[in-house]
Write a structure and sequence with these properties.
- The two termini are 27 Å apart.
- The chain is 31% helix and 25% strand.
- With 198 residues, it is an alpha/beta fold.
- The strands form 3 sheets. The chain has a 7-stranded parallel β-sheet, with helices on both faces.
- The longest helix has 13 residues.
- The chain has a single domain, classed as Rossmann fold (3-Layer(aba) Sandwich).
- Strand 11, helix 7 and strand 12 form a beta-alpha-beta unit.
- Helix 2 crosses helix 3 and helix 3 runs parallel beside helix 4.
- The chain has 7 helices and 12 strands.
């Protein structure tokens, strides 16, 4: 099993990595959403791609996010209600973190939360690189009826530093068409729903 050796990679660097995969995943993930729903977006780069798709595709959504990038992208979209969690702003991630960022989530119910990740593994579940981000994302996950993981194919069989949750805690994973078909079969054999973008 591979490991990313727990090296932190900033939002700006990640944004340019596998951008075509992230865009196709975002388009596919948008098919799971209906106008009028309340949606949680975390602070990952694929989440930002999804925010851009939602802005073009939908007319009436409530978006809850701890990402300054997502909030800025969606702030001028007529018909959208954008709720930023607040908290301590991190300059390298453009995201709100700390316990302050979780307080508002106790008062919110989400139809769906989109969770990005640094690693997806059958043995280790969903993993990520920063504890302060994971605390907020997990709280957002807990107030959602449905949790969808967005992960490009390069992150499968990767293990990052912080364990976010078990694969059993998510409803489905959306990934790109470059994923190995045998690996998809292994996940599906264990009951995990994987949606592959075109």
């Amino acid at each position: 099993m591979k490991s990313d050796e727990h090296v932190y990679i900033s939002f700006g660097v990640r944004q340019s990595q596998n951008s075509d995969m992230k865009q196709s995943i975002a388009i596919e993930a948008s098919e799971l959403i209906q106008d009028g729903q309340s949606i949680g977006l975390d602070s990952g780069t694929t989440s930002y791609e999804l925010a851009k798709v939602l802005k073009k595709k939908f007319n009436n959504l409530t978006i809850v996010t701890n990402s300054l990038m997502n909030a800025h992208e969606l702030v001028d979209k007529k018909g959208f209600t954008v709720i930023a969690t607040g908290g301590v702003l991190t300059p390298d991630e453009n995201s709100f973190v700390s316990d302050f960022a979780t307080l508002i989530l106790d008062k919110i119910n989400l139809d769906m939360m989109f969770l990005t990740t640094c690693g997806v593994s059958l043995d280790n579940g969903i993993t990520d690189q920063r504890m302060d981000e994971v605390v907020v994302h997990n709280k957002m996950k807990d107030c959602a009826k449905k949790v969808v993981v967005l992960s490009d194919s390069t992150k499968f069989n990767e293990i990052s530093l912080i364990r976010v949750c078990s694969l059993d805690d998510v409803d489905c994973i959306v990934t790109d068409s470059k994923i190995d078909t045998e690996l998809v079969d292994k996940f599906r054999e264990q009951g995990h729903n994987i949606i592959i973008s075109e």
